[in-house]
Design brief:
alpha/beta, seven-stranded mixed β-sheet, three-stranded antiparallel β-sheet, globular
Length: 275
């Protein structure tokens, strides 16, 4: 399958899945490889034949939706974002939690993949901030629509390339090397609960002080779905709480109730007076 053939197919198919082509432009090869394998499985000659197959078999759209999941993740991705979380956002949220006489700082990692993001947050808290807030517990709900990714996250076993961006002292403190892979120690996994569900359909029960929804809805999904997701997140985020999107993402202007905490890092605050 030629690259241009796949591009034309995606430009036709993605809008029907409430997705947007510009988000896939740089990562299309991952999706195109999956589509090529699907054509082989179905015994179809090319994407034109697959297009006709989709038009005749409505259930195949669910399969195509799965093929369009982009799975690119690693620990400490966008390190400046995590540094800002450690230096400003989490301490302020922690102080606000304590002021409300709560003892649990609640977070949600949406589209968590194989667990790199929520585990990075757990490491950051345990190794950097826990001494400052010894009586405060961090609780993370991590969700993804892909059951295979959730299973891998539960195993907490990662390749060297996945952890290469972590500070060396974090790797030494938090991981055990196993056959050239890195196994996360149980002390750093207990604060994270993994759940398999699709952000487009349901959200976990809040409220949450911090929500991370990075490099997912606001890159790959169309405007209508982006607005729906942002409004769902707003509904489970505490007033004054933080929403972190990708460093190159923004939430739609149509969504009320958010102000920038740091625009360059994709961090928003839910307006305290908005309900």
């Amino acid at each position: 399958m030629k690259d241009q053939d796949c591009i034309q197919f995606l430009q036709w198919a993605l809008p029907r899945l409430h997705m947007r082509w510009p988000g896939f432009r740089k990562v299309r090869r991952q999706v195109c490889r999956r589509i090529r394998r699907r054509l082989d499985d179905l015994g179809l000659a090319d994407v034109d034949a697959y297009r006709r197959y989709l038009e005749d078999h409505a259930a195949e759209w669910t399969m195509l939706d799965r093929l369009c999941r982009v799975t690119i993740s690693r620990f400490y991705r966008d390190k400046e974002t995590f540094r800002f979380l450690a230096g400003e956002v989490l301490p302020e949220l922690a102080r606000g939690t304590i002021a409300r006489d709560n003892r649990t700082l609640k977070c949600w990692s949406a589209g968590c993949g194989s667990g790199e993001e929520p585990f990075t947050l757990a490491l950051l808290w345990k190794l950097n901030l826990q001494p400052e807030f010894p009586d405060l517990e961090l609780q993370i709900i991590a969700s993804d629509s892909d059951p295979i990714s959730i299973r891998r996250a539960g195993e907490a076993l990662y390749s060297a390339s996945s952890v290469k961006d972590l500070p060396a002292d974090w790797r030494e403190a938090a991981f055990v090397e196993v056959d050239e892979n890195y196994s996360l120690k149980p002390a750093f996994t207990t604060s994270v609960e993994f759940r398999c569900h699709d952000l487009r359909n349901t959200v976990p029960r809040g409220p949450f002080d911090l929500v991370l929804c990075r490099n997912l809805a606001f890159t790959y999904w169309d405007l209508e779905r982006q607005v729906e997701v942002a409004e769902k997140i707003s509904g489970v985020l505490t007033p004054g709480g933080a929403l972190v999107v990708g460093a190159h993402e923004t939430i739609p202007a149509e969504v009320a109730g958010f102000v920038f905490w740091d625009a360059g890092k994709g961090i928003y605050r839910r307006s305290a007076g908005y309900s």
